[in-house]
Specification:
- The chain is an alpha+beta fold.
- The chain is built from twelve helices and 38 strands.
- Among the domains are: 186 residues, no CATH class; 223 residues, Alpha/Beta hydrolase fold, catalytic domain (Rossmann fold, 3-Layer(aba) Sandwich).
- The radius of gyration is 26 Å and the shape is globular.
- It starts with 10 loop residues before the first helix and ends with a helix.
- It holds the Pfam family Peptidase_S9.
Length: 678
């Protein structure tokens, strides 16, 4: 009998692994639907599949045939049986909403909507029988005139856009000028006739004439707004739109009547900072997340409760920063996700006593949904792709679902090294956290080259999570030991640890990285100190440039999307508030300029000696592509061995599967060239 060897990850096999996506539950929490995508590198195609999970029987039903008539854009449950699906079909210019019967999956769906323009961000309130959706409309707010006005604009104005204020672009997209289209929230009545949902009357634009925009034009979705339990109100979030909005984080929470004719009320415009995620509890209390510091996007988020009259901070004594909210069916408990020591955990907060209980202790939990008996969520770790788990919040019993046969088959022989955690003394004599992952097929008597991964954010920590890009197990499968440091600025290690990064970019992180690497090399004898390669993305890419000017410990470096000139980046970045908060103001102010100059890698290029692979995307509007080109120029002009991997169609991250495979191949080739992993 021949035993099968554990599978190793290759760039192709990693990218082709089935990926678990969105997760939603039915109103009673007895059913769930989630998505899975599988990339075929030969055909260069991604197939999206959907699955219905019966939480009472644990039965899994594929929905591929059910949804076979068109591409699924998004969906929302109308009740426990009927699912409204926004679906694009060849017969229609725009996607429309179709209703599917989840108790009879072979039953023919029927069309619910037929609006004259594209819609999205679906929500439904059963008490009022209102369907909520969003559409991008002109100043008149009318769905019926969108196409004709679009054609008029395109026919008479050419291709130019005239801006009279910032921002011009965001992430990977140019924004519309302030005097053109905005997303607005609409509601329309539904009723049931002959056992079918039908639309009654015309949609009503809740934001017409207000000048407000929701959902956000680039990253907005249905999470940007929520119905009250009785459907009489909608709470929504809206980015501040003043002339200084490009250098402000301000985003406010509003409440509007679904019946119209009443003033739109802003709940928190006295706090010129970021807020998001409005959700109503069943008792009518509105909850949302709020920062308190203007311009600081990584400020601690507080849980705000609004009872219709006044605001209250829930569990203000808690120093964690919750990232998402889910509210129990009895309104007594708030479930939040928050970083704690490199794991994204689920916590339960008692609304009355403000007592906090941790429910999950390891890995990374996302897409938290409330069910009949507790919670349903997605869980990922460094050793396994995301699975679906349920947690009974009374018994604390956990059940892991097989997700899909495709994922089960792809991972059955996948045995990946377990990550280990360590602590060391870093900057300011603080305890700093680190990860080490041994190479696949580890032999204790051998020496291994080191992939030293430097995370970005800047505040996003190096979590125990499964990620398509920058997956540490690609490097372990290629024969490298992986070391990663959660340096100062990382969330989940206390507020002071996070907040001290401001105006200290090149100081505390440098000490942490150098001390962390030294500690690992001393503590783990299998690490080869002469074969260390530093790799970083975004702020991690900035730190790679910084290390090149301040350290000689690395055999080679990889910089993806990192800053070269801090002042140059400021004038091209899409979020001015970020740079102004991190460096103490705009660079034309003398006091701030000193910080920009002090920590700009461009001022230390004469020290650069380490071979570097530079990677950048042409649609990167967070860190403009010229920063990557400038880095490559500085290396080439000085004769430092270097290469430039350029993706004209990619933003700050690699988003396309074929591009990601090439990314891994080029990075591994570069690493192997300089240290040659056995």
């Amino acid at each position: 009998m021949t035993l099968k060897s554990p599978k190793l990850l290759t760039p192709q096999s990693l990218v082709e692994l089935p990926k678990t996506g969105m997760l939603i539950t039915s109103p009673s929490g007895t059913k769930a639907i989630y998505s899975q995508s599988i990339y075929d590198s030969v055909a260069n195609e991604t197939t999206q599949s959907w699955y219905l999970l019966d939480l009472a029987t644990n039965e899994l039903h594929p929905l591929s045939q059910t949804f076979a008539q068109g591409d699924v854009c998004e969906m929302v449950f109308l009740d426990d049986v009927h699912l409204a699906v926004l679906q694009g079909r060849e017969s229609s210019q725009f996607p429309h909403v179709f209703v599917f019967d989840m108790d009879h999956l072979t039953k023919e769906p029927y069309q619910l909507t037929d609006f004259p323009t594209e819609i999205g961000a679906l929500r439904y309130n059963s008490a009022s029988q209102l369907l909520g959706f969003a559409a991008s409309v002109h100043e008149d707010g009318d769905l019926a005139t969108v196409q004709s006005q679009d054609q008029t604009d395109s026919g008479t104005r050419g291709s130019a856009t005239l801006y009279d204020r910032l921002p011009v672009r965001f992430w990977d997209s140019y924004l519309p000028a302030s005097n053109v289209k905005k997303n607005n929230i609409f509601v329309v009545n539904l009723s049931i006739k002959d056992a079918k949902y039908i639309v009654e009357g015309k949609p009503h634009n809740l934001l017409v004439g207000s000048g407000l925009c929701c959902p956000h034009m680039v990253y907005g979705d249905a999470d940007d707004y929520a119905f009250s339990p009785d459907g009489k109100y909608i709470a929504f979030q809206c980015k501040y739109d003043g002339r200084d909005s490009a250098w402000q984080t301000a985003q406010y929470i509003y409440v509007v009547s679904t019946q119209g004719g009443k003033e739109i009320k802003c709940l928190n415009n006295d706090i010129h900072a970021f807020s998001y995620g409005p959700q109503f509890a069943s008792d009518g209390t509105l909850f949302y997340l709020q920062t308190m510091t203007p311009q600081y996007d990584a400020d601690r988020l507080r849980i705000i409760a609004y009872d219709g009259q006044s605001r209250k901070i829930i569990a203000d004594h808690w120093q964690h920063s919750p990232m998402s909210l889910a509210i129990s069916q009895d309104s007594q408990t708030i479930y939040v996700t928050a970083d704690e020591q490199a794991h994204l955990k689920i916590f339960a907060i008692d609304v009355k006593t403000e007592e906090i209980t941790v429910l999950t202790h390891n890995h990374t939990a996302t897409f938290v949904n409330v069910t009949k008996d507790g919670l349903l969520f997605r869980l990922g770790s460094m050793t396994h792709p995301h699975v679906i788990q349920s947690l009974n919040t009374t018994t604390l019993d956990v059940h892991t679902y097989s997700v899909t046969p495709a994922l089960q088959e792809a991972t059955i022989d996948l045995k990946l090294p377990e990550p280990e955690e360590f602590w060391f003394k870093g900057a300011m004599d603080d305890n700093v956290h680190g990860w080490i992952v041994k190479p696949a097929g580890f032999e204790p008597d051998k020496k291994y080259p080191v992939a030293f991964l430097v995370h970005g954010g800047p505040q996003m920590p190096f979590r125990d999570n499964w990620v398509p890009g920058w997956n540490p197990q690609i490097f372990t499968s290629a024969g490298y030991a992986v070391v990663g440091i959660n340096r100062h600025g990382s969330t989940g290690f206390g507020r002071e640890f996070c907040d001290c990064l401001g105006e200290n970019w090149g100081s505390h992180p440098l000490v942490d990285l150098e001390n962390g690497l030294d500690y690992a090399l001393k503590q783990y004898s299998f690490l080869d100190a002469h074969k260390v390669i530093g790799l970083g993305f975004s702020f991690g890419g900035y730190l790679i440039n910084w290390l090149n000017g301040h350290s000689s410990k690395y055999k080679a470096l990889v910089n993806h999307g990192g800053m070269f000139s801090l002042m140059g980046t400021y004038y091209g970045i899409d979020e001015l508030f970020f740079a102004e908060r991190e460096f103490g103001g705009p660079p034309y102010q003398k006091s701030a300029r000193e910080t920009y100059e002090k920590y700009s890698p461009s001022n230390y290029v004469s020290n650069w000696k380490t071979p570097t692979l530079v990677i950048h995307g042409g649609k990167d509007y967070r860190i403009p592509e010229t920063e990557g080109i400038a880095t490559f120029t500085a290396l080439q002009r000085q004769g430092v061995p270097s290469k430039f991997l350029y993706y004209p169609d990619e933003p700050h991250e690699i988003t396309k599967s074929a591009n990601l495979i090439r990314w891994y191949e080029e990075v591994l080739d570069w690493m192997n060239h300089w240290v040659k992993a056995d």
